[in-house]
Design goal:
about 270 residues; about 60% helix; mainly alpha; single chain; two-stranded antiparallel ribbon; globular; lipoprotein; phosphatidylglycerol-prolipoprotein diacylglyceryl transferase activity; Phosphatidylglycerol--prolipoprotein diacylglyceryl transferase
């Protein structure tokens, strides 16, 4: 067993202002996406499936994505995972420092941001998504690290040598999978490497988007087998199906569809 590091949830205190690690991880994720996006824009070409991009367009794109992600992730968590609580105490939805952000809700919010951005900038929607999904995994990496620092979304009880005892009383004081780190490694590092390699060569428009959806859906579904389901939901069926897996299934199917259709159109 590995001791769980005792983190102070507050990273920086400036008088009455407290900057929490959870929020700081989001900022780092957005800054990483912005930096990588501007770098990719300087190397984009008009004759590529993603089209030509300018750093100024990336600035606008990241702004749209930030708004879509934060609104979608918080509203998605309220709708998918803890609807009764937010109905009883609506103001809880603004307390994002308490955690409770749904990736799938955030993905819906970002998808809407893509649609609005593509219409305003007169860009093909799939060119926008292909360009942007490569920038998403670093944000997922830092977001999962934020979950780990918060000591939330821990895994199921286990006796593996790297198990940890999380300080949350709800964790029961038993060794558990550090599932947040599994997700950081798969959704953040492995998925980023896969997308970066795949998009380094010209690919049919929509295929990079499809690979992101497929890759995330598969990785998330696998980690869910080690992650403790949300207490207010539990298992949805068969003592193993979780909400995360249920929401990931459409992503897997949609991702496969994008890949198959994009390559079929190219032939």
């Amino acid at each position: 067993m590995i001791p769980y590091p005792q983190f102070d949830p507050v990273a920086i205190e400036l008088g009455p202002l407290a900057i929490r690690w959870y929020g700081l991880m989001y900022v780092i994720g957005f800054l990483t996406a912005w930096f990588l996006g501007r770098w990719r824009a300087t190397r984009s070409r008009a004759d590529s499936p993603q089209g030509a991009w300018t750093p100024a367009e990336v600035d606008d794109l990241i702004t749209y994505c930030i708004v879509g992600l934060l609104l979608g992730a918080r509203l998605g968590y309220a709708l998918f995972y803890d609807f009764p609580t937010f109905i009883a105490r609506p103001l809880e939805i603004f307390k994002i420092w308490h955690g409770g952000m749904s990736f799938h809700g955030g993905a819906i919010g970002v998808a809407l941001a893509f649609i609005i951005f593509a219409r305003i900038k007169h860009k093909p929607l799939l060119a926008v998504t292909d360009f942007t999904v490569v920038l998403a995994p670093p944000g997922l990496l830092f977001g999962r690290l934020g979950n780990f620092i918060n000591g939330e979304l821990w895994g199921r009880p286990t006796d593996v040598p790297w198990a940890m005892v999380f300080p949350d009383p709800a964790a029961g004081g038993v060794p558990r999978h550090p599932s947040q780190l599994y997700e950081a490694g798969l959704e953040g590092i492995a998925l980023f490497a896969l997308l970066w390699w795949f998009s380094s060569r010209p690919r049919p428009r929509g295929s990079t988007t499809g690979l992101f959806l497929l890759g995330y859906g598969v990785f998330r579904s696998l980690v869910e087998f080690t992650r403790q389901p949300d207490a207010q939901l539990g298992f949805l069926a068969w003592d193993w199906l979780t909400m995360g897996q249920l929401l990931s299934a459409p992503m897997i199917l949609l991702g496969l569809g994008f890949i198959l259709v994009s390559y079929a159109k190219r032939t």
